[in-house]
Design a protein that fits this description.
Shape: elongated
Number of helices: 14
Number of strands: 15
Oligomer: single chain
Helix content: 40-55%
Number of domains: 3
Distance between the termini: 23 Å
Structural class: alpha+beta
Length: 440
């Protein structure tokens, strides 16, 4: 059932993005009197699941969910319709229109993707607000995993800046900034410490199987939350509210210290000698935690996060900044992909990997967050100056507008073929990576 929900969310998100992207091409084409022969969600290789002709356009749904397309008359595209292109240009064809009109048609899809992300982020700010933890609220500092330690961070650190940019909010964006950053500055034991963010640590994080576990989290106090009556902790005498001061003769002033000592004891198959305070008295208990069970303790719930509310008018500029921020991060992530030590290219995800990223339960907040992010990603990828993508057509059109010379149809055809080979090659690599990761 979880897999079905993940696939359903992915297909719905992609369907929304593809249909609106293609409408970005379709609408200006019709405004300029250009004939649109086909409008398809997904690719109809050999056959379509559904199609219907309305007016002069065939609308349909293909069976291969890797995108979609509009077939614009008189345009050299992936269909490579040489027979049509060999005929004299008709006034309702793409090639008959001025370069500026053709340019608007080609950038229409990317424009819609950016506007869609902006609209989604605006709506989410109004509906959900902006929830984050102010950096100044982390009174116990941060709690880091082994991978976080490999980056150079330590439990209890207060993160002050990444690459010289002050850290004001502790949220998922900060984790992404850390992965893309080169240097961090923290307050450690009362002193400011700067260090390079380790590429080896980034590699460990990208290769970590526990993708949902943050490598940096907010640390907590050593006060226990309410203890469930089915746990080892309950049978050992804990009821909640106890202050764990040491485990196996090691002081545990923070929750990260407690987790570390429990993990160490489990690794060494040792018992836990826990000293704690409760109702003004000090007690010690001894217990053992098998590898297939947990002690069953959680830290006392403390409210660190805040929520900023937004009106519609306040959300619009904030959401635009958020959209541009997502775009910048997507460009910067190529630092990880092409870094020889990080080897981020091994973690590039295709459709299979993306489905795994989707929430196993239907979560509208996560769904719309993913859709907005992916909309920006599609805009960025499509505007790359690669023939067969929107950016390739834009590249040739800009050349025509600047030089005053239109590229020959032979040049456009060859460019389309080269671009198609590049795109298909990348798709094969990405799909192969997905399949390899599944086997791993």
């Amino acid at each position: 059932m979880e897999l079905f929900i993940q696939i359903s969310q992915f297909i719905l998100s992609i369907s929304i993005l593809v249909v609106l992207h293609e409408f970005g091409h379709f609408l200006p084409a019709r405004w300029f009197g250009i004939k649109v022969e086909k409008f398809f969600l997904f690719f109809d290789v050999k056959f379509a699941l559904f199609k219907k002709k309305i007016g002069e356009t065939v609308y349909g749904v293909g069976w291969l969910p890797l995108g979609g397309y509009v077939k614009i008359a008189g345009m050299i595209d992936e269909s490579m319709d040489k027979e049509q292109m060999a005929k004299p240009a008709e006034p309702w064809e793409f090639r008959s229109k001025p370069a500026w009109q053709r340019l608007i048609v080609m950038v229409g899809g990317v424009t819609v993707n950016v506007l869609l992300a902006w609209a989604i982020y605006s709506t989410m700010l109004v509906v959900y607000g902006d929830v984050y933890t102010p950096a100044g609220n982390l009174k116990y500092g941060i709690d880091v995993t082994t991978e976080g330690e490999a980056l150079g961070f330590m439990d209890g650190d207060q993160i002050l800046s990444i690459d010289g940019k002050p850290v004001k909010k502790f949220n998922s964006d900060l984790l992404f900034d850390v992965l893309l950053g080169d240097e961090a500055t923290v307050r450690r034991d009362g002193k400011e410490v700067s260090f390079p963010i380790s590429d080896q640590g980034k590699k460990l994080i990208l290769n970590n199987d526990k993708k949902g576990s943050p490598f940096i989290d907010t640390d907590r106090s050593n006060i226990l939350h309410k203890v469930a009556d089915t746990t080892i902790a309950y049978s050992s005498g804990f009821r909640g509210g106890e202050v764990i001061t040491s485990i196996n003769n090691t002081q545990t002033p923070f929750w990260s210290d407690i987790k570390e000592q429990i993990a160490l004891a489990r690794t060494n198959k040792d018992s836990l000698h826990i000293t704690y305070q409760s109702n003004g008295s000090v007690s010690t208990i001894t217990t053992f935690v098998p590898n297939d069970k947990n002690l069953g303790v959680l830290p006392k719930a403390e409210k660190f996060a805040v929520k900023d509310e937004y009106s519609v008018f306040a959300a619009i500029p904030k959401a635009w900044t958020q959209t541009i921020g997502v775009l910048k991060k997507q460009v910067k992530q190529f630092k990880l992909i092409f870094n020889k030590e990080v080897q981020g290219y091994k973690n590039v995800k295709g459709p299979i990997g993306i489905v795994e990223m989707m929430s196993p339960t239907w979560d509208w907040y996560k769904f719309w967050s993913f859709t907005a992010m992916f909309s920006v990603w599609l805009a960025f990828v499509n505007i790359l100056p690669i023939p067969a993508l929107d950016g390739g057509h834009v590249m040739f059109l800009l050349y025509e507008m600047i030089s005053g010379k239109k590229p020959s149809e032979k040049t456009l055809e060859r460019g389309q073929i080269i671009g198609f080979v590049i795109v298909m090659g990348l798709m094969l690599v990405i799909f192969g990576n997905d399949i390899w990761n599944l086997f791993k």
